Amino acid sequence: xxxxxxxxxxxxxxxxSAWQCVKCYSSTLSIPITMPMNDSFICEFAAWALKEKExxxxxxxxxxxxxxxxHELKGFKNHNCLTPLAKKVIQGAQNLRFYTNMxxxxxxxxTLPMLKLIGHEIAKSDWxxxxxxxxxxxxxxxxxxxxxxxxxxxxxxxxYNETETLLWSDVKFTGPDSVLIHITVEKxxxxxxxxxxxxxxxGHNCCPVSCLKALYDVSKSxxxxxxxxxxxxxxxxxxxxxxxNCVRELLRPxxxxxxxxxxxxxxxxxxxxxxADCPDIANSEDVKSWGRWNxxxxxxxxxxxxxxxxxxxxxxxxxxx
Length: 321
Fold this sequence. Notes:
Oligomer: single chain
Strand content: 5-15%
Number of helices: 13
Distance between the termini: 61 Å
Order of helices and strands: HHHHHHHEEEHHHHHH
Mean pLDDT: 84
Low-confidence stretches: 101-105
Largest sheet: 3 strands, antiparallel
Shape: globular
CATH architecture of the largest domain: Orthogonal Bundle
CATH class of the largest domain: Mainly Alpha
Structural class: mainly alpha
C-alpha cells in the first residue's frame, strides 16, 4: 500500500503499460524475459516497439525509463535500461520521422476565442440545463485556473476518490467577485495541496465565478458538500475523457481534423500561452506562479511565445549596444 502511494496512479499505469508491452514482445517473438534484461534484449525490444507497434520515440523512451524502475523494484539496482545503444536506436527513429509522411499530432492550446466558441456550441445544443452548466463550468474552470483535468474531474463515471476529485466542500465563494478552490492532491505532492483563487472575468460571458455559482444553483449535489462539483443529475460524473471528446465534437465543424490535437492539458496551456505572448505584461515568474510550476517545464505550455522570444532577443542584442 505504501509503495503504491509513493507515486501518482498515472505513473503506475505507465509502468504497467511498459511491462505489458514487453510481455507482448516476448510472446510475439517467443523470446523469454530474463531479469536483469541485457543490452541486446532492450535494444531489440525498443526497435520492435518503434517499428512493429509504431510507438512514438518519446513513448519508447518513457517505457525504458519505467523498465529501469521495475528493475529497481525487483532488486536490480543501478540497472539503467536507457542504455547508450538504446538511446541511439530511439534517436535514429526520431531522425527518420523527418523523412516520412507521418503527421505528428501536436497539442493545440485552447485560447479565449476557442473557449467562447465552445460556450456558443454548448448554448445552442439540446442538452439539459444541468448538462450544459456542468460542461461549461468545467471548461471555464479548467481554463482560468490552469488546472490539470485530473485535479478537478473524477477518473470514473460512477465512482470517485474524495481526495482526488473536486468536491463542493473544496469550493469557497470568498466574495461576489472571487472563489477559492482547494486541490487536496496536486502533482507536486504538497501536503497541504494547493489553493487557487479565481476572479470575475467580465465582458466575455465566460466568468469562472459566475459559472460556478450558476452550477451550484442547478446542481442537486450542491446540497451535499461531499459530492463532486462536476456531476450530472443522473449521478454520472464528468471525466476528462468525456470532456475532451465532447469538446472535440463541438469544435469539429469549425476546426476540422485539428480538433484531434485537443487534449486535457490544452485548457491548462490557455492562460500561460496568452501570458507568454505578452511579455510586457507578464513575465516568466508570473506564468510559473499562475500555473503552479516549480521548474522550467512551464515552457512546454507556452506555445504562443513569439513575442516572448523577441523580448529575450532584444535583451541579448542590448548587450552589444
